[in-house]
Amino acid sequence: MELDDPMAPEIFDKLTACDPGLAWELCRNYVGYQLLGQEGVAIPFLDEAYHIVPFGVVAKKFKKADNVFGSAIRRISGKSVYSMIGSLANLTHHSTDRAPFKQKPMRVNEIQLNKQFVYRITGMRHGVKKVIKIKIFGTECFDVSLSVELGKLMLNKQLPELHSVKKIFIIYAVYYASSLSVSVTIGEHQPGSRYLNTSNRKFKHDRRMPIGFSAQKFPIMSNGCVGFMENSSCEGLRNGIWERFRSRLPSDPLPRTPTHEAGPSWAMGALAARRNPDDALPGLPGSRRHGELPAIPDESDSTD
């Protein structure tokens, strides 16, 4: 099914350059709802797709800033901040049995996903035309068994990644696409010309990559114990603020994604999520790997 819809005004205003990464960030929730459904969350950044793994841990924090009336700390607008901080394989206490976190993800056949998804939106204002086209082919879902017994799962609260963190989301399912492309075209009428002066940038990845995930929410006690699962619609993961990684993984040699000559929209760089299929899965951000992580399913895997 190809969707060709009018571009929302807020997207038109924020799309100030031919930047595929920015286009994805602006459209990811539209794509996520239509392709992945109510339980799926689209990845926040294209160039950080491979950090999304089964048993991955997303920390929920709060945006804070100095109070202009003193040294006290206040929250800004109540919007939560989210960041990928690692996986249960390297965040759990040394006394925790980590064997369950090494299980092989299994394909979920019950979920019917559009194998040839195309999302296209167009906007025109004051002689400026903007077009975003996203193609996602071969989407499949793989999940793991996330069974948390109260009092048995302990996180290492001494790790800096868990400092002041009281809520986490644990990823139990990852959606993979066999190919993905994001193209952006911006055209402008020039005085005395019948034609648009256009520029175009395109991101294309033709290997299996994560495009979304499903996660469950848990509280963390002061001693690091993970509590009972909490009901969550995951709307915060869709509409909240996501932090990018402050440094690039040395094991992830990714080429740069096309951006406008004025510079990328991303504060921490513009690295595409393109990788050689023979590369090993990179370690999770924020800490060294202390155990083997679940592997990305092979493209030839047919396990049910």
Fold and architecture overview:
- With 304 residues, the protein is mainly β.
- It has one domain.
- It is 11% helix and 34% strand.
- It has 4 helices and 13 strands.
- Strands 2, 3, 4, 5, 8, 9, 12 and 13 form an 8-stranded mixed sheet that branches.
- A hairpin with a 6-residue loop joins strand 3 and strand 4.
Give the class from helix and strand content and strand pairing: mainly beta
Number of domains: 1
Mean of all residue-level pLDDT scores: 78
* Oligomeric status: single chain
Gap between N and C termini: 26 Å
List the helices and strands and how they pair.
Elements (H helix, E strand, L loop, with lengths): L1 E5 L2 H6 L5 H17 L4 E2 L13 E11 L6 E15 H4 L14 E2 L8 E10 L2 E10 L2 E4 L23 E11 L1 E11 L6 E10 L3 E11 L15 H5 L1 E2 L62
Parallel strand pairs: 1-6, 4-13
Antiparallel strand pairs: 2-12, 3-4, 3-9, 5-8, 6-7, 7-10, 8-9, 9-12, 10-11
